[in-house]
Amino acid sequence: MKKKQSKKKTQNKKKKNYFETSAFANLEKTSIPVTKPKRSSSGIPKYVADRMAKRIFFTAGIPTILGMSVFVVSYIIVTRNIAEIPPSSTIAISALFFLLGLAGLSFGILSASWDKEPGSFFGIENIPMNIQRAKAAFKPATQNFEDKS
Question: What is the pTM of this model?
Answer without folding.
Answer: 0.58
